[in-house]
């Protein structure tokens, strides 16, 4: 037998099934968080989430496999959420069919969106994603008809796969060119020994594919800059791995000091509903590469809803609970304690240090629908009141990365997601007003 000729594969050119997304600085969120907040808008991907990178690159890796060149290919994904939708969008954009197998409990909204995206078929089976996946691999993919005897059937994993992580790592490639350059000697010095000119990245964690990609991308960038690790003066990029209570498989594994599976998913943020994170995610969390520090943190569904509503109000972006949880982690109590413009983004520590004369007053301009609750100082605010404002700036971000100040740079991965409607957001508002915590 001769060897496989890879020349045809090397010459293949495929459309990239994802786009470079904008990075925008949010004035209102920066003011609330006490640092510079940049939003990486993955919600504008073709599928509505970062999964376009993950599933798209996984599909490309199969199409570039010499064994698949010139063959009929059919992709299969077991997901009732954003991974399944992204798989269909990516496969269709490249001219290939994709069938999605979903659990019986998948909501009609997501079923309709997957079908509308052009899925070859949507099959419901099992109570969990693992049951749906097993049925897909052991039954659906092994059943052949006369039509598909020569078709190569390829199963796609939603998060635990090297090409998935490599696809997600392209976020870092984009941040490298999108982040503003350092504008002062102090900034230059602060970021010189970091892979990127930023202090922290916030991302939500389900199975861990996004976190893995971010770590891989930062590590690749560190090696490119030839930054050596130095234990005497650590200056890492902080990665906040954020889950909701009831999807917190990473936090549970860290507490257990080994991988474990949750008995079930109890959070409304079902897009984060992996009962077990990947082995690589766990290893990155407990022992990340040099120059990275991973923080695991868990918020409630109500916190996630607050984040969704804040992003909708301030930035006119509607995202899932799984995404909103990152917004709330960044601003927390600061959402109701925004500092005045001259100290906007100064953070708790610098606000406490700021002094005013005893005859100052404060005039507050209410939000008129533009997400901009501004306080303009004139006279009469006491030092004690200023300090109390600083005390309220106590978000998860500030707790885990306490040295942040007004010039610190924080990127939130707005991962997006399609399981959200205006009616759902209105219902969350009613629940919060009724005391949902």
Automatic annotation (TrEMBL):
Pathway: Carbohydrate biosynthesis; gluconeogenesis
Lineage top rank: taxon: Eukaryota
Compartments (UniProt record): Cytoplasm
Catalytic activity: L-serine = pyruvate + NH4(+)
Cofactor(s) this protein cannot do without: pyridoxal 5'-phosphate
Matches recorded under Gene3D superfamilies: 3.40.50.1100
Top EC group: lyase
Broad class of the protein's primary localization: cytoplasm
GO annotations of cellular component type: cytoplasm
SUPFAM superfamilies: Tryptophan synthase beta subunit-like PLP-dependent enzymes
Residue ranges constituting the Tryptophan synthase beta chain-like PALP domain according to the UniProt record: 20-334
InterPro entries: Ser/Thr_Dehydratase (IPR050147), Ser/Thr_deHydtase_PyrdxlP-BS (IPR000634), TrpB-like_PALP (IPR001926), TrpB-like_PALP_sf (IPR036052)
Region (Disordered) location: 337-363
EC number: 4.3.1.17
Family in the record: Belongs to the serine/threonine dehydratase family.
Protein name (record): L-serine ammonia-lyase
Source organism per UniProt: Penicillium flavigenum
